[in-house]
Amino acid sequence: MTITIRKALDTDAPTLSRICLLTADAGSTAEALHDFGELPGLVYAVPYVKVPTTWGFVMVDDLRDNEVVGYIVGSTDTRAFESYTAEHWWPQLAEKYPPSMAGKEADARYMNLFRNMFKASDACVAFSPAHMHINILPEYHQQGWGRKLLSSAVKFLKGEGLSGVWLGLDPRNSGARAFYERVGFRHVDGFPDNYMGLKFGEDVEVS
């Protein structure tokens, strides 16, 4: 297996969306939960190669015709990301996906979310303006690639003058929580439940 890591591109959007769907049910595939399988990615993956203040890195498997098999994406400025998407991203999706189209609960949840998107807590933004999401196809788990993706992200964010990053996670995904704890993420006082932060200045080994 020959894996390389590179910056995420706008052209990666369809693959990022697919990976998001295949990991959207607490790390497992959510295909059976959706008639509109693109919906999870339109929230948690695709915007990060489409709108300002975003960044991302992808894992590419050379033995699968350079297929993208994992990613880490985020924003350097969460409030700016929220402001831009509120004006330019969510409204067009709300128009395209009215809740009346939903035949499954998971689809309805996302379609309603387009009309009332959550915002980060003040505690999270005070910890760091930067947030992130990471997803890797299951067959590439437990091989150190999550740590390598995170290392690429931390190096980039440090170069942008940032000192930390935070994320939210599905409380059912115990494997993800264990990974984040191993690389130094911690629950921070004032954070909502199931949110964790990483300070780069701490003695944390992510490479």
Automatic annotation (TrEMBL):
Gene3D superfamilies to which the protein is assigned, alphabetical: 3.40.630.30
Write down the Pfam families for this protein, in alphabetical order: Acetyltransf_1
Q: Name a GO molecular-function annotation.
A: beta-N-acetylglucosaminidase activity
Where is the N-acetyltransferase domain positioned along the sequence? 3-207
Please, one GO biological process term? glycoprotein metabolic process
Q: Which PANTHER family match?
A: O-GLCNACASE, PROTEIN O-GLCNACASE
The protein's name:
Acyl-CoA N-acyltransferase
Organism field: Lentinula raphanica
